[in-house]
Specification:
about 15% helix; mainly beta; 6-stranded mixed sheet; 9-stranded mixed sheet
């Protein structure tokens, strides 16, 4: 095991991480002794759905892998096809009465370029697209190729038509897509976010964040993909700095704990992710679920939780370009009491 992974697992173990009143199972301590599983994806899939798993895992397993890419795809060529998502991973013991826990242990770009494409009638928050018509003419196609300086962790873009001839931004790698198979026989295309996770495009899904997903089928059927080296809130042009990533994930299951919508936790905040249209309903879902989390697991009175979230909470508009819009509602962990 690398020195980085060993130290990361030691931090997880030392943190005594809990979720609500239920501790993460003892299996979460095992990766300090177990070797990570190395998985090399050979194909991507276009939908989140129940299908034969590409990997079976026990709770506590750590997987070293990468997002999928193939020659001539979206990352390499204008008009190239989207390569699809990796998965599904079948997590043994996960049932619809449980919560799937996915820790993003390591997330790093593994190529020196990232692409952000503007497509006529593509997806956009501020121009006409395939779902929202506007009277103005479609934007012209343009493919922006950013250089990634991975040693300095910055992205660099030439701006030949602007006063500043180039710009440099710090990278903040994230996974746009983390999902379980949706309920029943549903299959959602890779662009969709929902209560199953999916294409949430939330920049909070980064190294060091723990993602909690509801489970709709035995085994959960977990998917991931869509690495962004950087993305602004809203993803308004319909694209982050799209690139491929080396990914290390740790999996656990919280038995007997059900949630309705994806949740996240990092060093600073607990978070709930709501995805629907219109945007205000995504906001409402995230806020209501956050208030109920404080009531159910932190001992707040409902009206008092409503008050403290109103005054102390903060929110991120994750995307306003996908088939469903996504909002992340957050509450600072420093304001939380001990769990009841």
């Amino acid at each position: 095991m690398s020195r980085f992974l060993a130290s990361a697992f030691a931090l997880f173990l030392a943190s005594g991480f809990t979720f609500g009143s239920a501790a993460v199972p003892p299996s979460s301590a095992r990766p300090s002794q177990a070797q990570p599983i190395k998985f090399e994806p050979t194909e991507g899939v276009p939908t989140f759905a129940v299908r034969p798993p590409v990997l079976r895992l026990k709770p506590g397993a750590v997987v070293e892998t990468r997002t999928f890419s193939k020659p001539g795809d979206y990352y390499e060529a204008a008009g190239g096809a989207w390569p699809g998502e990796v998965g599904p991973f079948y997590i043994e013991g996960a049932t619809p009465d449980d919560t799937l826990v996915v820790r993003i242990v390591r997330l790093r770009p593994n190529r020196d370029t990232a692409v952000s494409a503007v497509n006529p009638n593509g997806i956009s928050a501020v121009a006409g697209d395939s779902r929202t018509r506007m009277i103005n003419d479609p934007l012209p196609a343009r493919r922006f190729v950013w250089r990634l300086d991975r040693q300095r962790s910055v992205g660099i873009l030439d701006l030949p038509n602007s006063a500043s001839k180039s710009i440099e931004m710090p990278l903040k790698p994230m996974l746009g897509r983390m999902a379980v198979a949706p309920a029943g026989a549903e299959a959602f295309g890779g662009l969709w976010p929902g209560n199953f996770g999916g294409n949430m495009d939330a920049s909070d899904a980064r190294e060091g964040t723990t993602v909690f997903l509801p489970v709709f089928h035995e085994g959960a059927y977990f998917y991931f993909g869509d690495g962004h080296a950087l993305q602004g809130d809203g993803e308004i042009c319909g694209s982050g700095l799209e690139t491929t990533m080396d990914v290390t994930l740790q999996f656990d299951v919280i038995k007997g704990r059900r949630i309705r919508w994806p949740r996240m936790e990092d060093a600073d905040d607990i978070m709930v992710v709501g995805s629907i249209r219109p945007l205000v309903d995504a906001f409402r879902i995230a806020q209501v679920e956050l208030i109920e989390w404080l009531v159910d697991e932190y001992g707040f009175d409902k009206l008092e939780a409503y008050q403290v979230v109103s005054q102390g909470g903060h929110s991120r508009i994750a995307n306003v370009v996908d088939p469903n819009y996504t909002v992340v509602a957050k509450f600072p962990k420093r304001l939380l009491p001990p769990k009841k």
